């Protein structure tokens, strides 16, 4: 993509190695999904402070350095990578285009009807503006969140088939919540293209028995006895205390900080 043309890391950069390992493992474990082998997958890492990963319809997957710095291990990396692959598996780009065209036709039909009843340019312009806003918030964003949730579900199943510790998925989204809380970057789910972090954690927790069962049926090694979600709860509690302390103006120099890459840095004692 043009905006990332000058910020892509060279293919020799060490950050590519874990991504390549994860990609290979996911592809081998999910050969029952024909589209995975049909696409010519390509990988790029871009220097960017946004916590983001996305895939193009061609199979070109992008990760930002901030996202990779936030991810703690290859299990979490696999959940994100599989999520992006799931968008391609589910043909979400085609669905989005079809939905967009349908909404355009709806707006044209509605505008034609309004113009027939009230042939006024001013009324037409105002009506079009409000129609586009209503369609955007009521249909476009809702549909986008539905696709993201479907990719979460399919991606988690793909990661399970590749024998990753799928419990790390909810840990990652809890880390995203922590970054949001520490930076104050909150927003309403209603106005977002993605489900909220809380929603995604809830979805993954509901799916956990199913995907762990999928993992077991694939003859995967036993999951570690120590559940990583316990670790996440401890850290999350500390972050909540930090947020409370910050709001109260207490010990501001002794609380964790978030770097420009999204990494949580504990203060030195």
TrEMBL record:
GO terms for cellular component: mitochondrial inner membrane. One of its GO terms (biological process) is mitochondrial protein processing. GO terms for molecular function: metal ion binding; metalloendopeptidase activity. The chain crosses the membrane at residues 102-118. InterPro entries: Mito/Outer_Membr_Metalloprot (IPR051156), Peptidase_M48 (IPR001915). Residues 29-206 form the Peptidase M48 domain. Binds 1 zinc ion per subunit. Keywords: Hydrolase, Membrane, Metal-binding, Metalloprotease, Protease, Transmembrane, Transmembrane helix, Zinc. Its cofactor is Zn(2+). Belongs to the peptidase M48 family. This is Metalloendopeptidase OMA1, mitochondrial.
């Amino acid at each position: 993509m043009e905006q990332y043309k000058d910020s892509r890391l060279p293919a020799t950069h060490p950050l590519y190695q874990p991504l390549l390992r994860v990609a290979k493992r996911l592809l081998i474990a999910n050969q029952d999904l024909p589209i995975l082998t049909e696409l010519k997958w390509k990988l790029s890492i871009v220097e960017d402070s946004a916590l983001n990963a996305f895939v193009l319809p061609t199979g070109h997957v992008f990760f930002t350095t901030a996202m990779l710095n936030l991810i703690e291990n290859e299990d979490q990396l696999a959940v994100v990578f599989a999520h992006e692959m799931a968008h391609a598996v589910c043909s979400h780009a085609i669905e989005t285009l079809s939905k967009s065209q349908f909404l355009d036709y709806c707006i044209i039909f509605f505008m034609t009807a309004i113009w027939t009843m009230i042939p006024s340019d001013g009324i037409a312009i105002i009506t079009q503006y409000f129609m586009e806003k209503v369609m955007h918030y009521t249909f476009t964003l809702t549909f986008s969140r539905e696709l993201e949730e479907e990719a979460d579900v399919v991606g988690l199943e793909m990661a399970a088939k590749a024998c990753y510790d799928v419990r790390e998925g909810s840990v990652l989204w809890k880390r995203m919540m922590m970054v949001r809380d520490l930076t104050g970057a909150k927003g309403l789910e209603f106005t977002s293209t993605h489900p909220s972090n809380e929603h995604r954690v809830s979805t993954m927790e509901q799916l956990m028995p199913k995907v762990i069962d999928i993992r077991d049926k694939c003859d995967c090694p036993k999951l570690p006895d120590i559940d990583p979600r316990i670790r996440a709860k401890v850290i999350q509690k500390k972050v909540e205390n930090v947020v409370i302390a910050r709001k109260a103006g207490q010990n501001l120099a002794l609380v964790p900080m978030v770097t420009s890459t999204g990494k949580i840095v504990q203060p030195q004692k």
